Amino acid sequence: MLSLKHSLRWVYLLAACNVIIILAIMVYLDATPLDQEVRLTIRESIQSLTNKFDFTYLKGINKDSKGSAQDTGYTLEPGNVKFKFVNPKAKQGDPKEILEQNTRKYTEVMNQKIAGPKDFDLDLIRAPSDPGTYEHANATIVALVRNSEAIGIGRTIRKFERSFNGKFKYPYTFINDEPFSDKFKKKMQSYSDAPMEFITIPRELWDRPESIDAKKQDELMQIMEDHDVGYAKMLSYHNMCRFYLGNFYLLPELQKYRYYWRIEPNVDFYTDIKYDVFKYMEAKKRIYGFTINLYDIDRSVETLWPETLKFLNKGDNYKYVNKNGAFQWLLDDLQNPRNAKTANGYSTCHFWSNFEIGDMNFFRSEAYMEWFKHLDSTGKFYYERWGDAPVHSIGLALFADKKDIHWFRDIGYSHDPYLNCPHSDDTSGCKTGLLGQWEHLLDQNCMANWIDYSMEDTIGIY
Ligand SMILES: *[C@@H]1O[C@H](CO)[C@@H](O)[C@H](O)[C@H]1NC(C)=O
After folding, report:
1. pLDDT digits (tens, 9 = 90+) for 302-336
2. InterPro entries annotated for this entry (predicted)?
3. 258 lines ligand 1 (CB under 6 A)
4. FRET label pair with 427: which of 55, 61, 138, 200, CA 20 to 30 Å apart?
């Protein structure tokens, strides 16, 4: 290592000498009364000499490295943060044609036969023979549910145990804004013998902040409801989204964990998962795992993107943006131009958050938290209906490296009416290759954009 460094220093020194000599000759040429033709010949030979050497590794010479929104899709400077969709795959056609191309792409990928991810030796993280003595990853399964949802979440847990957790026995953390009843607890314990914790969210982490004008919210949500934005008038939904985005990670009982896997009532798992998904996340330093990409209701997030840009353009907040973020995925407006228009530039494409496997340390980080605080200060978790999925997704696309966000293509999963159904020997009970059975919903799929812009190696990983 040392000697390599040493010889590199010599290469640099020699290159620097070359540059100095060439510059000196050029200055000399300009200052001397030489014959025009001689001068030209010398110039030409210098030119051919410099062409033979690649000097671009010398700092400052490569002028194109800075980039601009025009060619790289982003500008990141204090007070001048901009993103632009630059159509990296040069897709062409009207929205209907784009939808056809994208659906074809998605179906093609889904139909390829796969097993678990190939970028890690899964034999190192197989199910233990005795989960009781197993050294678990630092992780928990999380369900935010009410007592009244016992049957629905029970259904999920039975499937989840069969698919994954029966083999690994990761602890469950049940979270509720009201105390769980004994009946609920007993029922959950009958579904799994993994450790379980039941948590009541402190009021101050859940309730609508005092600063929110309830009357203003009622009026604005009536308008939302008139535009068919689901759950707009349900206060607990607004509380839930805000909670999941910020205060969730601060719950005292979750401080002892790093990774979480979120489950919801009445979802389905179709795959026999034979490796420890948490240990895969840990080993590959993944920040976030998802199964489904969808467009959102554009009206629910009209000012989410402008507010985000406002935050990024304040002070030196530009520094939080990860240069390898999933910007193009956030901005592609080809399939659903109306969405991007209503949402002021945000495609509304998001990771469907009823399934998420995440590294809470990312969401506890300064970048994410400062941004969340800004969003919260606008009051628009109540005056608009920002869902937890689009907010999570924008945060991830901006502040994480896109290679650390992982599509669990191998995990068969559904939350009606959408599904992720891989073509694999370990999967049964779902129909491979489509987002769902309803033709008219296929335009809600934006996974092709993730595949096109954010995956370096679509095929190689599975
Ligand atoms: C698990 O992760 C949390 C959050 O990073 C950390 O505080 C805790 O010490 C970790 N526990 C172990 C056993 O490593």
Report:
1. 999 999 999 999 999 999 999 999 999 999 999 99
2. Glyco_trans_15, Nucleotide-diphossugar_trans
3. yes
4. 138
Residue 261 and residue 269 in contact, taking contact as beta carbons nearer than 8 Å: no
Cα–Cα dist 421/427, whole Å: 8
Q: Whose CA is nearest to atom 8 of ligand 1?
A: 256
* 244/363 Cα distance (integer angstroms): 10
User: How confident is the model at residue 48, as a pLDDT?
Assistant: 45
Structure confidence at residue 434 as a pLDDT band (50, 70, 90): confident
- CATH number, domain 82-119+202-250+284-454: 3.90.550.10
Ligand 1 centroid – CA 256 distance (Å):
5
User: The tokens of 76 are what?
Assistant: 């990141």
Distances (CA, A) of 264 to 148, 159, 237: 13, 12, 14
Structure tokens at 30: 């300009």
pLDDT digits (tens, 9 = 90+) for 347-374: 999 999 999 999 999 999 999 999 999 9
Q: How far is the CA of 438 from the centre of ligand 1 (A)?
A: 43
Domain boundaries, the chain: 2-62, 82-119+202-250+284-454
Q: Which of 170, 249, 251, 257 maximizes ligand 1 atoms within 8 Å of its Cβ, making it the mutation to test the pocket?
A: 257
What pLDDT is stored for residue 91 in this prediction?
Answer: 97
**134 class by beta-carbon count within 10 Å (0-12 exposed, 13-18 middle, 19+ buried):** middle
Ligand 1 site-directed mutation target among 136, 250, 258, most atoms within 8 Å of CB: 258
Q: Please write the tens of the pLDDT for every residue from 250-271.
A: 999 999 999 999 999 999 999 9
Distance 254 CA to ligand 1 centre (A): 10
Per-residue pLDDT band at 71 (split at 50, 70, 90): confident
* Beta carbon of 138 within 6 Å of any ligand 1 atom: yes
Residue 356 falls in the annotated catalytic set: yes
In sequence order, what are the residues at sequence separation of 6 or more whose Cβ sits closer than 8 angstroms to the Cβ of residue 219? none
Residue 459's pLDDT band (cuts 50, 70, 90):
confident
pTM greater than the 0.70 cutoff: yes
| CA distance linking residue 383 with residue 213, whole number of Å | 9
